[in-house]
Every structure is written in structure tokens, then in C-alpha cells.
Amino acid sequence: MRYWIETFGCQMNVLDSEVMAGLLAKMGYEKAKSPDEADIILINTCTVRQKPDEKVFAYLGEFAKLKQKKPQLILGVTGCMAQRESEIIKTKAPYVDLLLGPRSIHRLPDLLRVVQEQRRFSEYLDLYDDPVPPDLVVRNSEIFAYVTVIHGCNKKCTFCAVPTARGPEKSVPPKIVLEQVKQLIDLGYKEIILLGQNVNAYGHDLKDGEGLTGDGRIDLAWLLERIDEIAAPSRVRVRFTTNHPNHMTDRLIKAIANLESVCEHIHLPVQSGDNEILRRMWRGYTVERYLSIVEKLRAKVQGIAIATDVIVGFPGETEEQFRNTLRLMEQVEFDQAFMFAFSPRPNTLAATLPDQIPETVKKRRLQELIALQNEIQQRRNRQDVGKYVEVLVEGPSEKNPKKLSGRTRTNKTVVFEGSKELRGKLVHVHTNKAYLWGFEGKLVDEVNSKDETQMELLAII
Ligand code: SF4
């Protein structure tokens, strides 16, 4: 029996797919080489924008043809769209056999059994379900691994469908997180990425007895300290995403600055550079507050790279308000930005607001924003040409498979010549050319012990 999983959306969905692959592996399924040879196909969906929604139905149409040829094929839709748009899916794609919400993926084996044994449609869509930590995850990478530390989101940003797809926040007890991280390090993983829709809200809902306690208070800074104790000696890198500006505490900034394993890189969505738009988005902070966090991060964490998310064309956004966003981009000079035109999602407040912006205007604003950010990104990367950077080698470059590709601690791609044996290793590279996506460079050496490396680099510089 073979499975095929098609994944849309964010890193949380990637991890959810890896967990579902683990559940299927435990049931005796193997990964198919293509959808044609699968006995079960799952589409793990995203509902953040309209385009992926449309794509899901296009995929479903294709898989329906396979099902006609092979009626025993089980076709399932999982993830955020299954949770939020179950009725639409049932109407538009009545041949779907199962629907499973992102909060309940651990229920996949039960659901599958119902479909297989009773040959009937089955669904599990509980927003308040208590996710069960996975004991087997079939991971796509042998180098970096995702670990969920907090599920769901308690915020109510008016444009966002996530809270109604993933439910309220629920932190994973630190004991479980630490066990998972230790296991991954023992397995040889070199980078751990802690995930949560609001990862820096971690711990607010934990009570004594739900795991280890630390200084009477559990927050992300505390968790990072504990993780650093096991990650740093093995030179394992740690990242965490996504952060909400309102939970960027001084303790967390200090942890990023001081902990050896924690990378100098943060994803901190700003969404708009205009206070009135931020207010209508219910983001809960002002431009001034956001800028003060950026200032603190740059003052305390040397060389930190800051990435963000921005939406243009939110309902009612005037030309002047859009210009305020451009001004903010120039002021902050983000290292990376994920930029989108506002996409009205069903059952969100923003979708019902008056003064929706015409598509042509949204498109033009988005193009202008992207052009500006590209200029900024190139400029910032050019400043780092001629420097020595630590790179975690991921394997052959997609751009040029004869070369290797990896990422810096600041999450920038570096392409260079080297032996494929370096895959999964930390190396030093001297950057000699900047691009929008990162750098090309020359391999200097492999990172061995910290002291030895520092001495070598001092000699080289
Ligand atoms: S913080 Fe806002 S944008 Fe982020 S997931 Fe929650 S509701 Fe959505």
C-alpha cells in the first residue's frame, strides 16, 4: 500500500505532512513515487490566500480522474481548507473520502480505518482537539527538522483565517519539546526550527506540572535556554518562527543575543507601515512600537537578519497609507520580505469591510513594493561581500547542481564549489558575489572545534 501527500502552505503544513507520513508508515504504507501509483492521496491544504484554494480544486479534479480508473483509491483533504471549507469541498468534490482538520491530524489512522472498512466518507474537524505529539515523523530532510512548540493562534487579525482553521493556542509541554529536540540531535540533525503561528507566545498557557518548570516561568526565552544546553555542544543551530511583535520581550531578545545555538535571524511580520491600517487589521501595535523592537534587535544581536510579511491593498488603504509602508521598508531595510496583495478570505472581518481595493491597484502597489524590497535586499547583501560566513551545507545547488548550496546563520543562501561529502556539515565560505537570494563564494574550511575555527579565521582575515 502506498501513499502520496501533496502539501500547500507554510512550514507548519510541511511538518503536518511529515507527521501524517509517519502515521501512514506506522500503518504499513510506503511513499509512492507518483500519485498514479498511490492507494491513498492526501492534499494538505492552506487557506491563507485564494490562489492555493483554487489550486486545490484543480488537483482534486486531476485526482478524481485517477479515482475513476482506480475506484479503491482513497482521496483525502487535510489542513486549514478542510477545516474551514468542508461544506464547499463536499459540494464541489463529492468523491473526496475524508476530511481532516490541522488540529486533529493524529486521528488520521482512525479515519482511514472507517473509510477502508465501512467504505464511507469520514471527517474529523475539531478546532479544540488536543494534538498528540508524534512518535514517528517521516522527515523530508536529514539536515533540518521542524518541531511544533505551540499550536493555534489566539489573535484575531481581521484579514486572517488561521485562528478559525487551527484553533486556540496550546503550548506543547517543554518536557515533550526537549525530548523531541534531543532525539533529533541524537539522530544527527543540524538545525532545529521551532514552529508556532505565534511562536513567541510560547508558554503563556502552561501551568506548573505540565512539564519542566524554570524559575517559576516558562516562555520562549526559557525554552531556548534549555534547548541551547543540548544543541550548542553539538553545534546544532536553532531557529523559531513566526513571531508576533507584541510578544518580542527583552528576555527573548537577550536569549537570541546570548545563546550560541540560536541563529541571528528573525521573522517578524509587520504587515503594514501605517498606524490606521494596523489598527484596522487588529494587529495591536503601532509602527513606532515595531520600529523600537527592530532597533533593540539590531542593537543587541550583532548582524541579525530580519524578515517580515507585508500586505498591500488592505480595504480602504489610501495611496498615502501605502506610501507609509514603502517608507517603513526603506527605514527598516529588511533582509527578506514575503509580500502579498490583500486576499479576502471567507468569514474574516476584513473580507466584509467597505472600500475593497481594485485588483489592478493592489497589483500595481505590490509590484512597486517588490521592486523596492529587491533593491534593498541586493544592497544589503552587497554589504556582506568579502566576508567570511558560516554555512550549513544542504547539498547540490538547485541553480547549479555542480555546486553546493547552504544557508548562513542569517538564513541567506550561499552557493560555492565543494565536495558533496560536505553535505550536512558546517563550513566557512568567503563571499565574493551578492545576489537577491544570497551569495556566491569560495569554500575556506570546514568548521571543526570552535576555538580552532576562530584562530583559523583570525589568521585568514
Ligand atoms: S497572529 Fe494574526 S496573522 Fe498571525 S496567525 Fe494569528 S490571526 Fe493570523
Summarize the structure.
The protein has helices at 11-26, 50-69, 80-84, 86-92, 108-118, 163-166, 174-186, 220-231, 250-258, 275-280, 287-300, 319-332, 349-352, 359-383, 450-460, and strands at 2-7, 30-31, 40-45, 74-79, 98-100, 122-124, 144-151, 170-171, 191-196, 237-241, 265-267, 305-312, 336-341, 388-396, 404-408, 413-416, 426-434, 438-446.
Structure overview:
- There is one protein chain.
- The strands form four sheets. The protein has a six-stranded parallel beta sheet with strand order 2-1-3-4-5-6, with helices on both faces. A five-stranded mixed β-barrel has the order 14-15-16-18-17.
- With 461 residues, it is of the alpha/beta class.
- Helix 1 links the parallel strand 1 and strand 2 (30-31).
- It has helices spanning 11-26, 50-69, 80-84, 86-92, 108-118, 163-166, 174-186, 220-231, 250-258, 275-280, 287-300, 319-332, 349-352, 359-383, 450-460, and strands at 2-7, 30-31, 40-45, 74-79, 98-100, 122-124, 144-151, 170-171, 191-196, 237-241, 265-267, 305-312, 336-341, 388-396, 404-408, 413-416, 426-434, 438-446.
- It has four domains: 2-124, Rossmann fold; 141-263, Transcription Regulator spoIIAA (2-Layer Sandwich), CATH 3.30.750; 266-383, Transcription Regulator spoIIAA, CATH 3.30.750; 388-460, OB fold (Dihydrolipoamide Acetyltransferase, E2P) (Beta Barrel), CATH 2.40.50.
- The protein binds iron/sulfur cluster.
- Iron/sulfur cluster binds next to loops.
